[in-house]
Amino acid sequence: MSNIITLLTDFGQEDPYVGIMHGVIYGIHPEAKIADLSHSIKPQKVEQGAFLLSNSYRYLPASTVHIAVVDPGVGTKRRAIAIHIREVGNFIGPDNGIFSYILQAESSRNAAIEVYELTNPVYQLPLQSSTFHGRDIFAPAAAYLAKGTALSELGPNIPLEQLVKLNFQIPEWEVKKSGKAKRARGQIIHIDHFGNLITNFPASLFADLSQEQLDKLKVRYGTGLTITGLKKTYNQSKKTAFNINNIISLFNSSDYLEIAQINGDIATLLASKIGQKVSVEVPLNRETTLLPENPTKTEN
Amino acid sequence: MSNIITLLTDFGQEDPYVGIMHGVIYGIHPEAKIADLSHSIKPQKVEQGAFLLSNSYRYLPASTVHIAVVDPGVGTKRRAIAIHIREVGNFIGPDNGIFSYILQAESSRNAAIEVYELTNPVYQLPLQSSTFHGRDIFAPAAAYLAKGTALSELGPNIPLEQLVKLNFQIPEWEVKKSGKAKRARGQIIHIDHFGNLITNFPASLFADLSQEQLDKLKVRYGTGLTITGLKKTYNQSKKTAFNINNIISLFNSSDYLEIAQINGDIATLLASKIGQKVSVEVPLNRETTLLPENPTKTEN
Amino acid sequence: MSNIITLLTDFGQEDPYVGIMHGVIYGIHPEAKIADLSHSIKPQKVEQGAFLLSNSYRYLPASTVHIAVVDPGVGTKRRAIAIHIREVGNFIGPDNGIFSYILQAESSRNAAIEVYELTNPVYQLPLQSSTFHGRDIFAPAAAYLAKGTALSELGPNIPLEQLVKLNFQIPEWEVKKSGKAKRARGQIIHIDHFGNLITNFPASLFADLSQEQLDKLKVRYGTGLTITGLKKTYNQSKKTAFNINNIISLFNSSDYLEIAQINGDIATLLASKIGQKVSVEVPLNRETTLLPENPTKTEN
Lengths: 300, 300, 300
Known about the structure:
The structure is a homotrimer. Chain A is α+β, with helices and mostly antiparallel strands. In chain A, 22% of the residues lie in helices and 27% in strands. In chain A, helix 1 packs parallel to helix 4. Chains A and C meet through strand 1, strand 2 and helix 2 of A and helix 1 of C.
């Protein structure tokens, strides 16, 4: 298999939880290479973890084993699972929807996906707590898998359809009543270390827009903040009488729409929070306005 | 020896202190595998470091070298030491009590323990600061030890009895005046990332209780908070008129009594602090009440 | 080359940015050993990053590849560079002055220095964002370099003189008007996890002082704080009527003057900030006072 194992949890870095998982992994598989993606998912916020993992996995080799533990149901009957996506990666964690973004994206590309339930005690620590399956079940499973144990050894194959799915929404275009513009509604899904506001609008939503439409695109957030057009970098704006705070929108490094303040922290400036609404509006192309019987409502 | 080295310090992660220790280790022992247990021990809080290390070391192979640096006496005459506990692990750090919890636990199991003072300059950096022995003494000693240098090369053997001991107390049962119940007094020893309150009551203190006693067990904390009974997971409670905040107690993943709020942060809710008192009370078994001349006062 | 790669960024640890860089490195160079020096540089504070990197690199083998990413100009025309300093190390990052402290120190030792611009797309990720060159350009370049790719493969050699330089000032002595003392003016350049105030006065500035001068040295900071003399460790002071807060100055583990509170956090006590002024004053030696036509104004 591989030696690379990634970790994404809501454990923080103050406690020994993460280091113990590293130790368990090295104890089983001394050749492992561990990359910590994030341990700062907000406690129990499965969707935030799901989103950030979906931004990360494509930058790791397909042989990587990704562990994700945001697990409010630890110790209950929720399943522990391993997912293999061919030519993409291996994913280990609770069956609570934390892999939903990835499964949605990869299913839409018709990737070959297999799911196994982690039930074989041979690949778990002998004494199990009911509060720390990261240590007792997920870390050992990942270490054995990376070391070469077959997925089918970890437990029975289960149908993909049985997995818990997050009920997340990808924004879609709607034609406005006027018939002259279309709008999509989304939200802030993550606020990064720099205070940048990452929304759930994927770049693919904008793929069919003309340059004229992109130039006239309006991003609306909060009470009164409207940003016109998209920038390519954090340095393509200058302070003007109309934009004294140097606020821009752009596609971020994971291809989602982001609202940023140049060399500043807009989240602190505006006391932003995950879940706040953001909308995007563009004028409709002439052809489209002439064809109201065929309204633009699509995800591509 | 081994390649796994763990680190536990009060250095935080903002400064390059930890990364420099990693670099010094890799420079001496390129095959090392480093697991960071925690760098968020409260500055100079040796006991907190000692407690968290004692919760972690059993999950690492016995060949592991554990470095612990919470070291208010750095640069003074306090000794630098290496401890080898057979079939358990190797421990490197200042002689200030930071290994007290582990030594107490392992001594009580009659483990074979050897102690060495780190005096041999061959296994230290050539230029030494008087403020950063993690870099200059402990990291090199651990790297050489993990790489195969004999403990006796690092410096002279010294008697275990000479080590500085923390004066910590493990809670003990006392029969209440009424003769109908027994009580133990302890404290909050750590607050984790989720705001869970970890106390210094080990699960072993409760090992002899009957199920009836466990069901009637009362955990008291602060002004007026009383929790009855123990849960097994974070999901075995529901909000009631009598427990509107969903506060429970349970044994945590390290087998200490923990007070938690389900999907919440009780430490923030109650402005909890390390060192605050917690007490536990259980009704006495009938037999025990009949034998007041043999009061329950034991650690097991 | 080597397997050790260090990272220093302003990315924080909440987001997957750092973990993705680890993953990209391991994907290219599975034998890499990564040491995270710091990810807590204040956002866009190139000088703080430059200073902390200059405190760290000497503790790593000369074969190490150091990546530094504090990069407010990402996506603009600023160059991406690799620097090789013979017998010292390799440095990869944006050409914005982040290596200025190191280049100043190593140039003054006449080290052999070569610079290359990172232009060869073969050693970059195929799809590049304009906001995350740490992932797309710097991590791949470092991984290939560590794996054995020649520097000259990464792009064209460019003259050292063309690099962007930080305009930082190393404090210098000035004779006071009285002719009886000399003074140097500097500032706080970093505040560490313990709240220690690290200034930009290098120990070398004090190398020629007599013991009498050192004993009478006065460190002045803020309104009214004057510390007399230097300590060697955090334990060489005791609380007195004149120093109720136990504040001392000493040379820290990187040989810069530091102001510290013993077992305390002076930065919180005094609400200190990076950039605040600090001055140092010593009485002049008799000989020097007799020779006012030759004032002490030197860096050594």
